[in-house]
Amino acid sequence: MSDRVVLAYSGGLDTSVAISWIAKETGSEVVAVAIDLGQGGEDMSAIRQRALDCGAVEAIVVDARDEFADEYCLPTIQANALYMGQYPLVSAISRPLIVKHLVEAAKFHNATTVSHGCTGKGNDQVRFEVGIGALAPDLEVIAPVRDYAWTREKAIAFAEQNSLPINVTKKSPFSIDQNVWGRAVETGFLEDLWNAPTKDVYDYTADPTVNFEAPDEVIITFEKGVPVAIDGRPVSVLQAIEEMNTRAGRQGVGRLDMVEDRLVGIKSREIYEAPGAIALITAHQALEAVTVERELARYKRQVEQRWGELAYDGLWFSPLKRALDAFMQDTQQTVTGDIRMVLHGGSAVVNGRRSEQSLYDFNLATYDEGDTFDQSLAKGFVQIHGLSSKVAARRDLNQK
Length: 400
Description:
This protein is of the alpha/beta class. It has three domains: 4-171, 3-Layer(aba) Sandwich (Rossmann fold); 176-292 and 335-354, Argininosuccinate synthetase, chain A, domain 2; 362-395, Single alpha-helices involved in coiled-coils or other helix-helix interfaces (Up-down Bundle). Helices cover 42% and strands 20% of the residues. It has helices at residues 13-26, 44-53, 65-78, 94-108, 124-135, 144-147, 152-161, 237-250, 275-291, 294-312, 319-331, 362-365, 378-385, 387-398, and strands spanning 4-8, 29-36, 58-63, 113-115, 140-142, 175-179, 182-186, 216-223, 226-230, 233-234, 255-261, 267-273, 337-344, 347-354.
């Protein structure tokens, strides 16, 4: 049997051309692996058939929607992970899942090499190859688009010369990546930072002004950091994301326009739509504010940033990421309760919180009758708390 190459297959031009190209250049058989992450669009059976028609000896379709939601989106919710304070890691958290299935397919088919369709300017090449190295360090990697400077024109010419069954007549001005967690859009006229996004950029979200007269109030229930019900109806994590995509998306929630610091050292303008992600993270943060002790919450916020950076930088399977996962999981033991929020005009605004694990004590917080906070203790606390600063200030004044 010939050597085999396992290819991460999207069904698009580049990875379709890669099947035939890899076979011709290396003499290897190609096994295409397509992953359903809830991206919608074309039917996965059509994508599988296209891979076979382009010359793959086998084409595998994996329905990983629940796996993606439970093992990748959920940890992102629990980490409140927003890269640069905004981006909920739409593409970043999907890559390690794809890598996992590529490695499993490589082992099953006795392949020595895996391949992806990433360019040399993006983050995904790092996420794929570092992830593969962490799970299967002996596998080789081929990246035709990056390593052989493919352009769209070259790919089209190759497809035509080799009679590949690929329709390339319609060209989108954008580069788009999407899954159930969100949608990422770049390139085209968006590369001019002064150009505002047009209506055709968006698909997951409506214009925030469209439903402005009809706000949507929702109650999200969490158990130990896991969204388990919406408006009292039990849901899986996947169902929670899907429903909030619909409801928050209808209100224009989750639109992001940011200049992002890529791992490769360049700045890139990115448009994101992540209505479900932003709504769920907002609700989760609000519940943690009620149920997580002050010092733990403070430290967790520092860890959240590092966790997000590791995920963004392709280090999902790293020892540090695994250790931080254990910390995150421990912090979720008391994150149980309900959050009520209003989805309206592009915003998800929390207006109600309740939890049996709440650390909020009404009698300590109130300024009215029933106040149990002993204010007489505060004077000494304030004096001691500021003592070191006061001593230093006195010294500095004496030296002037």
